[in-house]
Every structure is written in structure tokens, then in C-alpha cells.
UniProtKB/TrEMBL annotation:
It comes from Enterococcus columbae DSM 7374 = ATCC 51263. Pfam families: HATPase_c_5 (PF14501). The keyword Transmembrane helix applies. The chain crosses the membrane at residues 12-28, 35-51, 87-109, 121-140, 156-174, 186-206. Residues 328-428 form the Sensor histidine kinase NatK-like C-terminal domain. The keyword Nucleotide-binding does not apply. GO terms for molecular function: identical protein binding. Gene3D superfamilies: Histidine kinase-like ATPase, C-terminal domain. Keywords: Membrane, Transmembrane, Transmembrane helix. This is Sensor histidine kinase NatK-like C-terminal domain-containing protein.
Length: 430
């Protein structure tokens, strides 16, 4: 009976460890049905009892591998691929961590030889310790990097190559440690071998985290380069406009005399043409925005030029303070991506209008962008989940926006209403 309880506890704790592993990587979304979760937990209790009593199978680790895989029934469709691809890695890594704890106990208390997939009277206890270690790792990871760890196909392959090599090493160690007679020596040999394997696999995960950080830095650097280019053009245009204004003031009397003379001839079209020529010559037809925030002014000025080239009208509303108390890099990422996506979507939809508004309310910066969409768009977890064409229209940069908003402790929301795609960002200012 004690062995049976130990086996059930071991499987449930193993299940909890796997969930912590998925939480560590992030990006896995499960259903919220209490009935389905209750059914799965009941199965995890009944399966080890059945295999132990009816089938006389006393190896709960192998049983757990297949029973915990039932998680696939509780995961949302968009997360299924990531869940399956990570499952063997998380399972073996959890078992390696548990084996580390077992070897420490064996060294301290002179316990008998331990097999890689064995059950001992203290297996559930050591698995409980492993769960606590995983919980600490998860909390540390969330504090250091709150974003989802996205693995490329190459990274997943490299993780499994490392895992295969370390598993071969563990089985080799598990076989030859029996030849070492002193319990402490065998335990110490086994511990350092398993610990080395765990560290090696952990370095593979760490490399994936570094790769994600590098890609974020690369993206931020690219955006900053684009923004600096816009900034240079913006200030050059401002200086040029100032110079042209001085020139216009110098020649203003002559221009008024010319306009008055043409007007006396009752040639309205000629007057309009002359005024248009002046506006074009002195760049009075260019729009420069003074919302109060330099970053947004530069982005809007650049965007209006592109919109005008495509015969698109922008409606821009709002006045905001100079100092938003929001990180300038995150503000650039948020505004640039939402504005650029709206413009590109409007061009592809062959529409001629989109709107931008920003305001301060209750110590919050509210930024809203709206544009027309002709097709239905499915939205899940703040991102586009629809046809490739729609993703191309709206999906570019939305993940970067979501990440930047999360870093700023704000709210990012997208929805479609009356064929309008609405992106709303709310950022705290205090």
C-alpha cells in the first residue's frame, strides 16, 4: 500500500514538474475547463494503480511518460506543436534533476544503487524536492526574462542532440557504477556524471534564452536606426522650412503685389496656381506635427509623407506632454509598428483612410490606431490567428508591440468592430 501511494504521489509530482517546465518556456496555453483537468488528474491517479495491481508493472517513470502526455488533450490548438516538441526534453530533464537529488541522498545516507528509471521508497520525496527547485528556477526566469522563450527548429534539434548524448552517458554511468563497491564513491561518481549532464542540457536552454535576447536587441537596434534616420530627415526638414520661411518673409511684399495684380485681372485660377507654386517652392504643403512628444512627432511626420504618396488621408487627434515617462525604445517600438502596420494594411486594402489618436487620462497614456479591414480576422492572446494574407496585413510587429507594452506594465488590446481593426495601447505614466 505504501509503495502504491508512493507511485501515485511520484506521478502527480512528475506531472507538476512538467507543467513548471512548460511555464518556464512560456507560450503554452491550456484550456480552462475544470472538468477536463479533473479528469486528467483522476487518470494520473488511476493509471499507476492499474499498472501496479493489474499489470504488475513497478516502473512508474515509464508509465508517467505516456500518462502525462495526455496533456495534449488539454492544450489549445496553437500551442500543441510546441507542447509535443518540448515534452521528451522536459520529461528527461525532470528525471535528470530528480536523479541528481537521489544521488545526493544516496551519498549522504548510504542508500542502495539507483537506476535511471527506478522507484524507491523515497522517490516521491526526491521528486518533491525537484519540483521546488523547478519552481525557484521558474520564478528566477520570470524575474529575469518575462517573455516567452521561442525556439527555432535548429535550436530544438540541437537540444535533442545534447539530450541524446547525455542520456547515453547516464545509461553508461548507471551500468558501470555497480562495479564501484563503496556506496559513497559510486554515489559521488553518479552524482557528478548526472550533474554534468544536467548542466550541459541547461546550457542548451540558456543558449536559447540568449538567442532570444540577442534577437530582441537586434530588433531594437534596427528600429533605433530607422528612427534615427527619420530624426535626421525631420530636423533637416525643420531647418530647411525655417530657412524657406525667412526667404518667403523677405520676398513677401513682392508676392503680395503679384497676387494683387493677377487678382485685378479677375483670373482666379491664375491666383490659385501662383499660391500653389509658392506653397510648393517654400514647402508650405508639408505637414509637421507638434503633439508635444518628439518621438511621436517624428514618426507621424514620416508616416504622413508616405500616406500622402499613396493618396491616403490620416486623421490625427491628441495633444500629449513632452515627458511621457515611458521608455523611449519601447515607445518607438509601439508607435512605429502600429502606425506602419496600419499604413501597410490601408494600402493593401486599397482604402484611403485610417485614424490615430492619443490622450492622457487618469495618469495613463492611451494610443489608438484604427484602419479598415475587408476580411474576418481571428484574434487569440493578443495576436492574429487567421489566414496568411491577414497576418501579413496586421501581424507584423504585433508581437514586438505586445512585448514592449508588457515591459512597460501596460495593456495591449486588438479587436475588429464594424470592419475596423482597432489597436489600443494603455501605458501607466506614474
Amino acid at each position: 500500500m505504501v509503495a502504491l501511494i508512493n507511485a501515485v504521489m511520484y506521478e502527480l509530482l512528475f506531472f507538476l514538474a512538467i507543467l513548471l517546465g512548460y511555464a518556464f518556456f512560456g507560450g503554452i496555453n491550456f484550456v480552462s475547463s475544470k472538468m477536463l483537468w479533473g479528469t486528467l488528474i483522476s487518470l494520473l491517479i488511476l493509471i499507476p494503480i492499474y499498472t501496479n495491481r493489474a499489470l504488475n508493472i513497478f516502473n512508474p517513470t515509464q508509465t508517467a511518460f505516456f500518462s502525462i502526455l495526455l496533456l495534449i488533450l488539454l492544450v489549445k490548438k496553437e500551442s500543441a506543436k510546441k507542447l509535443v516538441s518540448l515534452y521528451p526534453f522536459l520529461f528527461v530533464m525532470t528525471d535528470l534533476l530528480n536523479l541528481n537529488v537521489m544521488y545526493i541522498f544516496r551519498f549522504l545516507f548510504h542508500i542502495e544503487v539507483i537506476n535511471f528509471f527506478s522507484l524507491s521508497p523515497y522517490s516521491s520525496f526526491t521528486m518533491g524536492v525537484s519540483v521546488l527547485v523547478l519552481l525557484l528556477l521558474f520564478l528566477f526566469r520570470k524575474k529575469w526574462l518575462d517573455d516567452e522563450i521561442v525556439l527555432s527548429n535548429k535550436q530544438i534539434v540541437s537540444l535533442y542532440i545534447i539530450l541524446a548524448l547525455t542520456c547515453m552517458m547516464i545509461f553508461y554511468v548507471n551500468h558501470y557504477q555497480r562495479l564501484i563497491h563503496p556506496l559513497k564513491d559510486a554515489a559521488l561518481f553518479g552524482f557528478f556524471s548526472v550533474f554534468s549532464a544536467t548542466i550541459l542540457n541547461s546550457l542548451g536552454v540558456y543558449q536559447a534564452i540568449l538567442a532570444k535576447n540577442y534577437s530582441l536587441l537586434e530588433e531594437n537596434f534596427r528600429l533605433q536606426q530607422q528612427f534615427h534616420s527619420m530624426q535626421e530627415v525631420y530636423f533637416e526638414n525643420i531647418l530647411h522650412q525655417s530657412k524657406q520661411t525667412r526667404n518667403f518673409r523677405h520676398d513677401m511684399k513682392a508676392h503680395f503685389q503679384t497676387i494683387a495684380q493677377i487678382a485685378q485681372e479677375h483670373n482666379d485660377q491664375a491666383v490659385m496656381n501662383y499660391i500653389d507654386e509658392i506653397a510648393h517652392l517654400f514647402h508650405f504643403d508639408k505637414q509637421y506635427f507638434y503633439t508635444g512628444n518628439q518621438i511621436i512627432d517624428i514618426l507621424l511626420t514620416n508616416l504622413t509623407e508616405k500616406a500622402r504618396e499613396n493618396n491616403i488621408t490620416m486623421s490625427i487627434e491628441g495633444i500629449i506632454p513632452k515627458d511621457l515617462n515611458v521608455d523611449s525604445v519601447d515607445l518607438t517600438i509601439i508607435c512605429y509598428n502600429l502606425l506602419q502596420n496600419a499604413l501597410e494594411a490601408t494600402i493593401r486594402e486599397k482604402n484611403d483612410f485610417f485614424s490615430v489618436s492619443f490622450s492622457i487620462k487618469n495618469q495613463q497614456f492611451i494610443f489608438v490606431v484604427k484602419n479598415y479591414v475587408s476580411n474576418e480576422i481571428s484574434i487569440e492572446n493578443g495576436l492574429i490567428q487567421s489566414r496568411k494574407a491577414d497576418k501579413k496585413n496586421h501581424g507584423l510587429g504585433l508581437k514586438n508591440v505586445r512585448d514592449a507594452v508588457e515591459r512597460s506594465k501596460g495593456i495591449f488590446d486588438i479587436n475588429v468592430k464594424n470592419q475596423q481593426f482597432i489597436a489600443r495601447v494603455i501605458l501607466p505614466l506614474d
